[in-house]
Amino acid sequence: MDNQNIRQQLQNAYEKRVAMRVYQDKKIPQEDLETILDAAWLSPSSIGLEGWRFIILENTAVKEAIKAVSWGAKSQLETASHFILLIAEKNARYDSQSVYNSLVRRGISDPEALDARLKQYQIFQESDMEIADDERRLWDWTAKQTYIALGNMMTSAALLGIDSCPIEGFPYAKVNAILAQHGVIDTEKEGIASMLSLGYRLEDPKHPRKRKDRQDVISIFN
């Protein structure tokens, strides 16, 4: 396939993609779902940390509990083919086990090389990002990374003719408590960053999608 065809496919997918709130009673084929999930799994992350988990929520009790408190997820929880929770790791400091493991996972095992890289990450977190000693900012850092995976899942879904909706309309503390109560997460180690619904639109949106003029958001600085 040449680049012109690829560009056209991407353009068509982006043009059709909208935030979908109500879906048909139709299941996504498993092979398509796996492709969407692979888009998350293979997404890039800061320092290669992969400080995330992606949970396909199928438990009815948990769904009902989340729906009861989440104004932005009610119709999606009721109608979506699949519902995904994006979970972000907490306390991913430069000296944490998860950062160390991420280096070993990528083949960095020499003690001197490991020490040099960890010192580089220390400078990155302490001086550049200024997050090393702030638990909330450390979590914000990993939570932001989940949005890379979120975007990749949505684009992959759109290319497969599958609709989606990213969801932040919920009380984070309450949803974290629900997930902890049911043993989905350990709130000492992680927290929910966002949600994603997937399925097939019941109908087209009532209002056309509008964007700022392209030249207002894309520019060249010479």
TrEMBL record:
Residues 16-200 form the Nitroreductase domain. CDD domains: NfsB-like. Belongs to the nitroreductase family. Its cofactor is FMN. GO terms for cellular component: cytosol. This is NAD(P)H-dependent oxidoreductase. It comes from Streptococcus pluranimalium. It holds the Pfam family Nitroreductase. InterPro entries: NfsB-like, Nitroreductase, Nitroreductase-like, Nitroreductase/BluB. Keywords: Flavoprotein, FMN, NAD, NADP, Oxidoreductase.
